[in-house]
Design goal:
Mean pLDDT: 84
Number of helices: 8
Structural class: mainly alpha
Order of helices and strands: HHHHHHHH
Number of strands: 0
Largest sheet: none
Radius of gyration: 27 Å
Oligomer: single chain
Length: 138
C-alpha cells in the first residue's frame, strides 16, 4: 500500500514531466532525429505560469483582474516554479506529513502491529461475553 500511495502522490510530477517530453517531441523530434546534444540544448521544463497561460488563458486573465496588486509578486514567484518541481514539492509535503503521523501511530505508513487499539468498556461491542444473560419469562 505504501508504494502505491507514493506513486499516487507522484502523479502530478509524472504528468508535468510527460507534458515536457511531449512538447520536446512535437517541436524537435518530428523528423525523428534524436541526439543528446539536442536534448541538452532544447529540452526545457515548463513552469506553472506557462502551462496556465497556454491552456487556460481566460482563467489567468480573470485571476489577474481579480487579484490585488500587493499579492501579485507572490503569485508571480509561484508561477515561475517548474511544474515538475511543484509536483515533487506536493508529494514531499504529504510524505513528510505521513511520516510525522507515523511517529504518533496514525496514518497510512503505520505497521499493523503498532496500531494501538482502545479497550472498550462495553463488553457487548467488544465481542466479549460478560456472563450469562438471564431472561425473565412471564
Amino acid at each position: 500500500m505504501r508504494s502505491s500511495l507514493i506513486l499516487f502522490l507522484l502523479i502530478p510530477t509524472f504528468i508535468a514531466l510527460g507534458h515536457d517530453v511531449y512538447l520536446f517531441y512535437t517541436n524537435y523530434l518530428n523528423p525523428g532525429v534524436f541526439s543528446f546534444d539536442l536534448l541538452q540544448k532544447e529540452f526545457k521544463f515548463s513552469s506553472l505560469g506557462y502551462i496556465w497561460t497556454t491552456y487556460g488563458r481566460e482563467s489567468f486573465d480573470a485571476t489577474v483582474m481579480a487579484t490585488e496588486g500587493t499579492y501579485w509578486p507572490i503569485i508571480d514567484k509561484i508561477l515561475t516554479l517548474r511544474a515538475t518541481v511543484a509536483g515533487l514539492i506536493f508529494a514531499g509535503f504529504f510524505l513528510i506529513l505521513f511520516l510525522i503521523l507515523k511517529m504518533f501511530g496514525r496514518g497510512p505508513f503505520v505497521e499493523e502491529g503498532t496500531v494501538s487499539k482502545k479497550k472498550s468498556s462495553d463488553s457487548f461491542r467488544s465481542g466479549k461475553q460478560s456472563g450469562k444473560i438471564k431472561y425473565k419469562r412471564q
